[in-house]
Amino acid sequence: MAETADTRPAGIAMTLDETIQRQTYGVFGRVLTRQTFWVFVAAVVAFVYLSFASDAFFTGNNLFNVARNCAFVGIIALGMTAVIITGGIDLSVGSILCLAGMVTGMMMAADYSIWIAVPCGLGAALLAGFVNGYLIAYLGMPPFVVTLGMMSVARSAAMVLSGNQMVYQFGSDHAKLVAIGGGSTSGWFDGLAGLVGPDSALGGLFHGLAALVNIPNPAIVLAVLALIFGFTFRWARWGRYIFAIGGNEQAATLTGVPVRPIKVSVYMLSALMAGIAGILQVGWLGTITTGMGVGMELIVIAAVVIGGANLAGGSGTAFGAIVGAVLIEMIRNSLTLLGINPFWQGTFVGTFIIVAVLFDRIRSLRQAE
Amino acid sequence: MPVLELTNISKHFGAIHALNDVSLSLEGGEVVGLMGDNGAGKSTLVKIIAGNFPPTHGTIRVGDREVHFHKPVEARELGIEIVYQDLALCNNLTAAANVFLGRELHKVYGPLRVLDHAAMNRRAGELFAQLKSETRPRDLVRQMSGGQRQAVAIARTRLADARIVLMDEPTAAISVRQVAEVLNLIATLRNHGIAVVLISHRMPDVFSVSDRIVVLRRGRKVADKRISDSSPEEVTGLITGAIETA
């Protein structure tokens, strides 16, 4: 299509092009306006402060524990971020975590292979997520109500399965389950050292690494999943669509976005993440009780919201979810270390959610002016 | 040859006759103002053209063939695009992302299909330039003026290579300066040979950009004439029923 009708002088055309080229903010300015950035700064400040305020904080053991606890919250927070981006909420993740762990644990206790038990546990989580998603997407029920119901159903199912007993014997693959959830890079490197010969030079190197780098397995799982989520949110069509659904669901429908299947996928993904966290947690604890994951949904939602996602939908990042998880777990940990009554933790988590939403509210009010 | 021809279209919802025996033809590069009071049948007519529901009686021809739409996507495949009154945009996405929503461009790396942001921004920028709009592809729609939002909605129809664009009250909720911008956009569409149906309550807008005016009253077509042969006074009379037909 030739633009022969354009009679504007060249000078004006130039300025128009320049206007089009110009960005509203520079890269730096854009970073400074992000809540995630400031929460990241807060986490770093808290980290430095705690290292000085408490002798117990900056120790290998404690940091290892914080990293592992962060990982469970963070893994679920990734799935929750997807749900919240679409404008939904998933209150059932704590119960689904328990259900997936219980199915896996019960099957292994009945001496099924871990290769069968883990897929069954994740399958149970996916089924719960599918029911959530179907009721929300196809029957138009509010996510809050559906997932609140599923929160009760999934935990009750776990209780029925186990007869409300603690399970701590996982059959012939017991050691594998414990190694997956409770292991760390130290164990891997020691294993490698054993493989190449402990006395060889390479073996010595691996021994050195084992002593030096000790990252819990769940944190590695979190890192891998975070990369996948971060990539998908930005570079996959699915990611684009969940943002569109959260921004304007009707518009997404009108432009041909398959809104319903995408919504189902989001709740299934959230449940799957809860299931992965549940199985890892069982491996770490070496036992399962039906009380596992109680109240987890609140911590996860707090992490996501603190990380910059908007509960009204349409925004959120994988990085933000992780920063939020780190900040919350660090503060929970420090409350214990500083000798503050742990009963206060709920107050902190709850206040965090409210304050994060309050900031959001203030921002939107300022935009409306 | 008309790009769109409606013959003796009627639409009944139970006992309610929303449209009665309406015929309408559209040429490429023609802007038709569709006017009428609330409940005159404007949106019913638009929804029939857009494929939201089929007419009770009558035929629709697009180009040289008769069509029966069951879903909006079928109309869209034949080059009929709608710019909705509320614009159907996602505020949290960029202009380019909105233009390409549902039709994203990809780059393929082995098994991975990756969004091609660069290509989409470039193409959207070209479309905005064609529309002579200052809209920037990377800006969030949230930050945009009403006129720029219209440009995004219209750019979406350009992307699809539309032959017919239906615009539902595009100037209803925007400032005077932005109205001029939107009317320019409509003129640009016409210059590209696209047939535009402009549904509006605003008489000055219809008269400034349309070639032809069609008036509906209580489900019937009461006027279909060149804009030069009519006047705002006559059209007001036709809409209210003070003048029977013209």
Q: What is the structure about, briefly put?
A:
The complex is a heterodimer of chains A (369) and B (246). Chain A is mainly α.
Describe the structure.
The complex is a heterodimer of chains A (369) and B (246). Chain A has 369 residues and is mainly α. Chain A is built from 17 helices and no strands. In chain A, helix 12 packs across helix 14. Chain A is globular and about 70 Å long. The relative contact order of chain A is 0.17. By secondary structure, chain B is an alpha/beta fold. Chain B has one domain: Rossmann fold. Chain B has a six-stranded mixed sheet, sandwiched between helices. A four-stranded antiparallel sheet of chain B has the order 2-1-4-5, with helices on one face. In chain B, helix 5 (146-159) runs parallel beside helix 6. The mean pLDDT of chain B is 88. At the A-B interface, helix 1, helix 12 and helix 13 of A face helix 2, strand 8 and helix 4 of B.
CATH fold field value of chain B = Rossmann fold
Task: Please give the oligomerization state of what you see.
Answer: heterodimer
Q: Quote the average pLDDT of chain B.
A: 88
Output the structural class of chain A.
mainly alpha
Order of helices and strands of chain B: EEEHEEHEHEEHHEHEHEEH
Determine the strand fraction of chain B and express it as a percent band.
25-35%
The number of domains of chain A is 1
Overall spatial form of chain B: globular
Largest sheet of chain B: 6 strands, mixed
Strand order of the largest sheet of chain B: 6-9-10-3-11-12
Largest interface: A-B, 32 and 37 residues
What radius of gyration of chain B results from the CA coordinates? 19 Å
Structural class of chain B: alpha/beta
Low-confidence stretches of chain A: 1-16, 19-24
